[in-house]
Amino acid sequence: MAMMLQGSIVGVFLLLVMLLLILFLILIACKPWRFFSSLSSPSRALKVGELARPLVLDDANARDQGNEITRSNDLEGAYSQNEGLLRPPRTHGLKHKQRLPSASPQLNQGDSVVLDVLPDQIEEFSVGQTFRRLTLTERLAEVQKHARQEDQGPNLKSDLKNDLLQEFVPKVIADQRRCLSLEVISGPSCGLRCSVQSTSASRLPLTIGRVSSDLILKDSEVSGKHAMINWNADKNNWELIDMGSLNGTLLNSQPIGHPDSGSRHCGDPVELSNGDIITLGTTSNVHVHVTSKSGSQTPFSVGMASDPMALRRGGKKLEMEDVCYYQWPLPGIPQFGAFGICDGHGGVAAAKSASKMLPEKVASILSDSLVRERVLLQHDATDVLRVVFSQTEADMNNYYEGCAATLLLVWADSDESFFAQCANVGDAACVMNVDGKQIKMTEDHRVSSYSEKLRFNETGEPLRDGETRLHGLNLARMLGDKFLKQQEPRFSSEPYVSEAVHVKQASSAFALLASDGFWDVISAKKAVQLAVQAKERDSADGDNAAEKVANILLTEAKTLRTKDNTSIVFLDFDRKFRISSKVDS
Length: 585
Known about the structure:
Largest sheet: 7 strands, antiparallel
Number of strands: 29
Pfam family, one: FHA
Organism: Salix suchowensis
Distance between the termini: 118 Å
Number of helices: 15
Shape: extended
InterPro entries: FHA_dom, PP2C, PPM-type-like_dom_sf, PPM-type_phosphatase-like_dom, SMAD_FHA_dom_sf
Helix content: 25-40%
Protein name: Protein-serine/threonine phosphatase
Structural class: alpha+beta
């Protein structure tokens, strides 16, 4: 009997231990103490009536803290940050832990809801006020103040300023990108043209292919449905998409198809710009011309051509590191335009950055009416061009990549004549021909050049006998290459700036910009002769003449077996191509 009693007691004890263990495991899993932690953090009660009022930064605190992130609050109580100047958006301050239920009859006037407010006193809000929209100057000052406080790098500061400036010019850019014209400039269907308006929804997207397309190319290397172009209303630009073509699509010699070339899937949309060259297969090239709805056009003929000169040296394929561009007019500045070539080394990143920044810097500086009027009055933009290169160099964040850069600034005078002035670093050159007179617009900045040898001598560190490179580079001046410039003080980004050239209304003139792949095999004198001959041969071709001249020059460089990427920008100022560029005062 005693044995049975003792056994039952042991059984009950084990049962209690098991129950306690189960209860302990349940407590661990449920974590009930988390419901009490919110009681220790400060909370704030807002009435339903207050939720309808805007929550804003106090003006004084906004200036002290340099914070311009606006916050909106809807009737459901869910807070969201507006995307402002600073990226990525800051996430400290007011946050919600749980979305409030939607407004309903159960929430009456005078009832309260509780929002958890993190104990971060960086931002203070007052109820019943509205945000004050800062002026451009104030907002730039705020961005600069915040950048100094956070000790951000120069590249981020530049991005912030560029984002801010772009916020004020999208309408101008959008107005320039409404009419798209395509012209086949090489291949079996050469001469074929097609155009479409961004407002013609029934004609979009515009398809390019060998059959059943809006632009039909009789080329065996072109797929039936090769590519398409569509208008992106959100971004206000035209976009090109490869439709899984067999032989691929290139934009300015860069492939844009799906990364998996064998998948036959559509590629990602790529923005189209005025002057771009679309290559379908290997022989069909299509020139892109973008104008505004009002018909604003470049007041002279412009042609662009480029080729990576890829297949040579036993079939080795070279990467395309040249980037050529032009903008006429510059955003918000109808009398000025920028034309340029950036020739990269060590990769294309520096060339892409410079080709984007240079025209933006020109537009930003010339947006000052006093600066613009001084250039127009004195017929000289030397100071502007020097500042443009200085600011671009400061804002570039390319430590192991660099580029030669040549920028030709063109502006219209009141009597429909033009002025052209060039600045450059590196070996991408520009030459002009005005009424038969050849004018050199750039300076060669290779290490072995005469001008650079003189500069080295002036620094007290001349080149050694037979030395033609510094740290492996044959250029002494370039944009980017920040690491090398830290190691070798003789590297420079100071540009050469030419005299301004006056192209009179009755003048016969043209400008030729080309990367070093062209000048390695063709002299300036021969290039001018070839351009004059090509102009005479294709003088009746109208707007397409400059494009043909550029392609003839490119073909000549290819025939002479150039061994580098080659890009050409050709401007024809002949009177017959001119469009009135007068601007109402």
